[in-house]
Amino acid sequence: MDTMRLKTLNNPRQTQVLLEGCLAVGRPALPTGSCRIQSPEELPPELQRHAESRLGSDGVWLAWSDRRRIWFFTGEPSLALSRERKQPVLNVREYDERGELLEAANWVLTNLGGWQRLGP
């Protein structure tokens, strides 16, 4: 991946767009009525720490709630893997309401515009 394209991955807005696309493909649909959480203050303190740790970095967070449960994800570009794969690669992490890591995986944007999970 060329240097100019890699630099766009350092843009949090671009990372957010990539994470939204990755989650649309890689996750089951959220329950009907789930609402997007926009502000860290709307999160429990355990998740606020994860959200606030993304400030000033290349990483972003996205969260939804149906008032019973929260789905919280972080995404951070992997420049080394993006360079190696010649496509954007995101490290995606999912946390539960207590801030415990449920899953972490690297996802690559395919040439066809879809997302593919990279190895274990």
Give the topology, please.
Elements lengths: L2 H7 L2 H15 L8 E3 L7 H8 L7 E6 L4 E8 L1 H7 L3 E7 L5 E9 L5 E3 L3
Antiparallel strand pairs: 1-2, 2-3, 3-4, 4-5, 5-6
Give me some keywords for this one.
6-stranded antiparallel β-sheet, 6 strands, 31% helix, 120 residues, single chain, alpha+beta, 4 helices
Describe the model.
By secondary structure, this protein is an alpha+beta fold. It has one domain (3-117). It has helices at 3-9, 12-26, 45-52, 79-85; strands spanning 35-37, 60-65, 70-77, 89-95, 101-109, 115-117. Helix content is 31%, strand content 30%. Strand 5 (101-109) and strand 6 (115-117) form a beta hairpin.
Count of strand segments: 6
Q: Helix segment count?
A: 4
Low-confidence stretches: none
The whole-number mean of residue pLDDT values reads: 87
**Topology as H/E string?**
HHEHEEHEEE
- How far apart the termini lie comes to 23 Å
Structural class: alpha+beta
Query: Which range best describes the helical content: under 10%, 10-25%, 25-40%, 40-55%, 55-70% or over 70%?
Result: 25-40%
> From the alpha-carbon coordinates, what is the Rg to the nearest angstrom?
14 Å
Number of domains: 1
Major sheet size, sense and barrel closure: 6 strands, antiparallel
β-strand amount: 25-35%
Strand order of the largest sheet: 1-2-3-4-5-6
What sort of overall outline do the alpha carbons produce when their principal axes are compared?
Answer: globular
